[in-house]
Amino acid sequence: MKLLVRILGPLIIVACAVFLARHFILTKPEPRTFEAPPQVTAVEATRLKPETFQVFLDTQGTVRPRTMSNLIPEVSGRIIEISPNFREGGFFEKDEVLVHLDPLNYETAVVIAESNLAQAKTALREEEVRGEQAVQSWRRLGKSGTPSDMAARKPQLAEAQAKLRASEAEVIRAKRDLERTKVKAPFAGRIVEQSVDVGQFVSSNTQLGRAFSTDVMEVRFPLTNKQLSFVDLPEAYRGDNADEKQNAPEVLISGRIGRDAGQWAGKVVRVDSLIDEASRQLFVVAEVNDPYRRQDDRPVMPLKIGMFVDGLVKGELLENVFVLPREAVRVGGEVILINEANEIRRQKVVPLWSETDKVVIPAEGAGLNPGDVVCLTPLSYPANGAKVLPTIDGVSPAVEQPGGGMMGKGGRGRKGKGGKGKGKGKGAPEPESERAVSKESVKSDSGEKS
After folding, report:
1. Within 10 A of 430 (CB to CB), how many other CB atoms are there?
2. Which residues in 293-312 are b (16+ Cβ under 10 Å) and which e?
3. 367 is in which domain, residue-wise?
4. Does residue 61 sit in helix, strand or coil?
5. Exposure string (b/e) for 150-174, b if CB count within 10 Å is 16 or more?
6. CB of 98 within 8 A of CB of 184?
7. For 242-293, what is each residue's pLDDT tens digit?
8. 434 lies in some domain
9. Residues 265 and 305 in one domain
């Protein structure tokens, strides 16, 4: 008997435990289910309205002088003096003497030429007298009519006149060579390179140095094929006036050297005759007048040769277009429209012009209409029909939120009593007694306030 109890006792206990466990599992209460409130994304938006947009073509180029010359003397000689401005970086004015050669030999040549001129004048006068005497002798011989040229010594007279003119030309040349011993600046400019100095003998083909004119600087800018369609370039044809610059596009040039930055105004005056084969771009030349001037008695950083600058070429004025921030247009040329029900819709557009931070879309024929609301906030996965809470041009519309509150321009609304309850689970309804007490307290409060 005791053996049977020892065997059946544990089995009965296990069976009871299994029965109780099965009972608890089958009779467990059903868990309460809650519906997640719809997720509404707050976005920034704008309402489209047509406007005008000024196109500026962004490009870059290198500064170069319009006039660069090699200074070469026209006569030979030893350098006896140079100007203090004839140094690298020195400024000089037009007709300023930069290099002075030894004039002794040329002064001697002037004296010799003047002596030859005096002899030629004397010879001419003597020949004129001989000619008159020859004519008188011919008539004393009783001959009538006009004497021949040989009898009147006209060839000898012509020879004497020719020698006189040659002597006069020699004097002019000698004086001109003497003047050329002073090498003068052909324009107002600046020295780039000095190749000679005092005491050096130079010939008529020796390079003294290099200089450039400071009246005008040039910048050569490349323009892409797309940029060319938004600017009116001064293309010249045969027979046209190449100096016509009234309608030349304006250019704003900016550059920096160290911590100094400057801006200069210029104009596009020329266009290259061919398109660069390597970059497939067309180069235009912009001119900046008087880049070394002072503006309003303030020193302005000058344009340096070889300086790398940025250029903004003034292009066309686009009318009846929509201007959107760059982030409003998604990859692939899509924008997100928001309807009156605050639902989004993806719309394909064709931009007319784009910049670093702006995209220009035509108001007609591009898929957008005036008054459409465009989302400006980038959305990762914008599904058509999804709800959003737009702030249109800084104004937030009042939209009812789950739980009985209001979300509007004033901020978050007051939650109802059906919200998170104490000890009754999230979203549990209030008992009728508590609800009645709450209403009475609200009424009494309102009565006291009134």
Report:
1. 14
2. eeeeeeeebbbeeebebbbb
3. 323-424
4. strand
5. eebbeebbeebeebbeebbebbeeb
6. yes
7. 555 557 899 999 998 888 888 898 999 888 888 888 888 999 999 998 888 7
8. no
9. yes
